[in-house]
Design a protein that fits this description.
This protein is of the alpha/beta class. The chain has a single domain, classed as Rossmann fold, CATH 3.40.50. The chain contains four helices and six strands. Strands 1, 2, 3, 4, 5 and 6 form a six-stranded parallel beta sheet that branches. α1 packs across α4. The longest helix is centred in the C-terminal third of the chain and has 18 residues. Low-potential electron donor to a number of redox enzymes. It holds the Pfam family Flavodoxin_1. Keywords: Electron transport, Flavoprotein, FMN, Transport. This is Flavodoxin (FldA). Belongs to the flavodoxin family.
Length: 153
């Protein structure tokens, strides 16, 4: 496949390892598409870094009854102060359907926060119950491909 010259950052938060597996799946797909990619744990990352990338994928987990990851609270808050009009992003993450009305709620919260930056999302949020299944991996391929297609100039 041809070089895309696109750069992506995949930012994740995980307790159980499920979200790191989601992030690793996204990274593998990006690498197959010849996109340069940087993997970042959310507590070790600043939102301003996103200005250096064409694509971003946020992979937060939802804790308890719709709570954001504790280690991602500063990142979430700091996103409100960043302008990213040239960025295309996607959001995926795991949750537990046991929590019904709160299932993967952090994805929606991060999506709303990212919209404030001026970045654009073109693909649906990918909600994964616990660990990513083969069907979830297919949905991640769609997420990545749609986001790449919208980013190419």
């Amino acid at each position: 496949m041809a070089e895309t010259n696109l750069k992506a950052q995949v930012i994740f938060a995980t307790i159980t390892g499920n979200n790191e597996a989601v992030a690793d799946n996204i990274i593998s797909i990006l690498e197959e598409r010849n996109v340069q990619v940087k993997k970042s744990e959310i507590s070790q990352t600043e939102p301003e870094e996103l200005a250096d990338y064409d694509l971003a994928f946020l992979v937060p987990y939802t804790y308890d009854e719709g709570s954001l990851p504790d280690e991602g609270l500063d990142y979430f808050d700091d996103l409100a102060d960043v302008e990213l009009p040239g960025l295309t992003y996607g959001i995926a993450g795991s949750g537990d359907t046991f929590y019904e009305g709160y299932y993967c709620l952090a994805l929606d919260k991060f999506d709303n926060q990212m919209k404030k930056t001026g970045a654009k999302r073109v693909a649906d949020l990918v909600r994964i119950n616990l660990y990513p299944s083969p069907k979830d991996k297919e949905r991640l391929v769609s997420l990545v491909d749609e986001t790449i297609a919208a980013t190419k100039k």
